Amino acid sequence: MPLWVLISVASAFLQNGRTALQKTLTPRVGIVGATYARFLFAAPWAVAVVLALLWYRGIGLPRIGVTFVLWALVGAVAQIAGTLLLLHLFSLRNYAVGNTFARTETVQSALLGLILLGDRMHVLAVAGILVSLAGLVLLSASRGLAGGAMNRAAALGLTCGASFAVAAIGYRAASLSLPETGEFLIRPAVTLAFVTIAQSVMLTVWIWRRGEGGIRAVLREWRLESLVGAAGMLASLGWFTAFTMVPVAQVKAVGQVELVFNWLTARFAFGERPSLRETTGITLVCAGIVLLVLGA
């Protein structure tokens, strides 16, 4: 089995754990606070990994150019937006369904490629998109919210997925713009450290300007947030590494295994019982993504 597949599966598992911890944290510090904690407490871990790798290889920091900075910032802003939307989804839907909406980024990438770039799709890819959309309709209507597939939760989820898709593309471009170092972990690790520091600074300024004591509230929960940061850093390092090895769409497709972890976490950790319609919707989304990959 290719190394990038193993890395992607491990990242999906770690990301599920981090998201579960964030869900526990959100009632204590709010949506913005939980998002802030994710990046603030991941940054020190990311910097430590970079320093350890550079020391181990006996080399200096790779040259960072304008292209790297621009793509990394695009990814950083898009990821903040996606994380805020994802955490807000938890207040509208249950845990497993909220994450499923965010995973539509793979399908959205295929549609945008067709519309904007004229990319041709195999019949299996078209079938995959239709099957995934059917799953989303089931999920959207699973609790009788007004408007069916056009309700607020669906719109937020689709926007969330688009944000994560843009973030992944930005991170891949930023990482690949760095010079080769002979160590496959250094480029993604440097990208991750830069991004988490930038995100921490952006959110610190934002929360400070709001003047609601949000920073103090976050720091009071440092024990739980340290776990969130460590899990988030390891998951992100895995994603960034896989992005430098193969195209984003392939990594994201394998990463859909997180839906299984989400369902298990919702069932056994939070005691939630997804309905038959919700379970069917999640299954259709996963099946559609498999067809999409087979037709790629």
UniProtKB/TrEMBL annotation:
Stored InterPro entries: EmrE-like
Keyword Transmembrane carried by entry: yes
Keyword Membrane carried by entry: yes
Source species taxonomy: Bacteria, Pseudomonadati, Pseudomonadota, Alphaproteobacteria, Rhodobacterales
Name used for this protein in its record: Drug/metabolite transporter (DMT)-like permease
Keyword annotations of the record: Membrane, Transmembrane, Transmembrane helix
Transmembrane segments: 35-56, 68-90, 121-141, 153-173, 185-207, 227-249, 279-295
Organism whose genome encodes this protein: Amaricoccus macauensis
